[in-house]
Amino acid sequence: MSKLPHIGTSIFTVMSQMATEHQAINLSQGFPNFPIDDRLTSILAKLARENIHQYTPMSGLPSLLDKIAVLTQKSYGRNVSAKEEILITAGATEGIFATIQALVKVNEEVIILDPSYDCYEAPILLSNAKPIRVSLNNDFTPNWEVIFAAANEKTKLIIINNPHNPTGKMWTENDFIQLEKLVDAYPNLLVLSDEVYEYISFEQTHISVHHRPKLWQRSISVSSFGKSFHITGWKIGYVIAPENIMREIKKVHQFLVFSVSSIAQHALNEYIDLVEVKALGQFYQQKRDFFSRLMKDTKLELLPCEGTYFQVASYANISAENDLDFTKRLVTEYGVATIPISIFYANGNDNKCIRFCFAKDDETLTRAAERLRRL
C-alpha cells in the first residue's frame, strides 16, 4: 500500500517528456541551458586530480561552512556559527525534507501557501502530519487574514518561499511584520523559509528571514548553490538554523545522505571567493527584460516578475481551456513546453496562467517567442 497514494509522475517530467517527443522548446523545467562559469569548470578540472574524493564531515567542508557564514554576514548582516548553525545539503530539496522530518511530529500541522512547489507536502505526509494549504491572493501576495485563521496550537511550521516559485512575486516589509505577529501568537510555531532564489531579485530588494532578528531563533532558511551558480545538476545547497534546531536536522541528514559530494564542496569553496552573488540579479533581469520584449508581440499577458527566473503569463484572452490542456496544446501545436499554474494548488485552482522559465540562452528564448506569436 502506498504511503503517498495521490502522488504520481510530476508535471515537470510529463512536460519535459512531451517536449522531447514533439521536439518542442522546453521552457518548463527550472534549469539553465547555458554553460556554467569557465572559472568553475577550471577549478573542477584541477580538483579532479587532487586527493579530495573521500567523505567530508557530515555537516560539510569546514572551510566552505566558514565562507557561507561570511556570505550570510555580507549579504544580510547576520552572524551565524559555521560549526553549529549551517549544514551543507544534497540540494535544497534534501534540506527541506530533512527539516520537516526532523521537526514535524504526528498530527501536527504545517501551513503551505499555494501555489507552492511540490516538494513541501510529501515529507509532511510521511511524518503523519497534516498539510494545511492556504491560497495566496489573486495577485499572489499573502492573505494574512486567512493565514492567521488557519493557524492554531497544532501548527508546527509555516513554509514560505521568497522570491516565489512559480509566480516570481516577492514579500514586502509588511508581510514580514505580519509573519512576526503570527510567530509571536504561537510560541511553538517555526518558519521554514525557502530562499533558493534569494540572489535573483530585480527592482525590489529581497527581504530574508536573516534580515529579521525577531525571527532568527524561530526560522530555518534553505539556500541553493545550484540556483545561484547555474549548477542545478550538482544538487548542493545549505540550511541555516539556530543550534538547538540544527541539531535535530543534522540527525535526519546523517541518515539520508550522511555527507554531500566532496568535489562539489571543494570546488565551491574556491569558487565562492571569485564570484559576486549580487550580480546574479542583474544577469537574470537582463534575461527577464529580453524575454518580455520578445513576448510583446504575442497575445499572452505577462504578469509582474519581481524575482526568480520564472515568468507567469495569462492566456485568458486567448482560450477558455483549462491550463493543463492549454499547455499540452502549446507543446503539440506550437512546439513550446511550459508549466500550468494549477498544479501548484491543492485545490487545482485554474486562473488561466502558465509559467515560463527564462533561464535560457537568447537563441532559445527568441525561437520560443517566434512560435508563440502564432497563437
Automatic annotation (TrEMBL):
Q: Which family would the database say this protein is a member of?
A: Belongs to the class-I pyridoxal-phosphate-dependent aminotransferase family.
Tell me what this protein is called: Aminotransferase class I/II-fold pyridoxal phosphate-dependent enzyme
UniProt keyword list: Aminotransferase, Pyridoxal phosphate, Transferase
InterPro entries for this protein: Aminotransferase_I/II_large, Kynurenine-oxoglutarate_AT, PyrdxlP-dep_Trfase, PyrdxlP-dep_Trfase_major, PyrdxlP-dep_Trfase_small
Q: Name one GO cellular component term.
A: cytoplasm
* Entry cofactors: pyridoxal 5'-phosphate
Q: Which organism is it from?
A: Flavobacterium rivulicola
Keyword Oxidoreductase found: no
Q: Which GO terms describe its molecular function?
A: kynurenine-oxoglutarate transaminase activity; pyridoxal phosphate binding
Extract the PANTHER family matched here.
FI04487P (PTHR43807)
Q: Where is the Aminotransferase class I/classII large domain?
A: 24-372
Query: Which domain of life does this protein belong to?
Result: Bacteria
Say if the entry is tagged with keyword Hydrolase: no
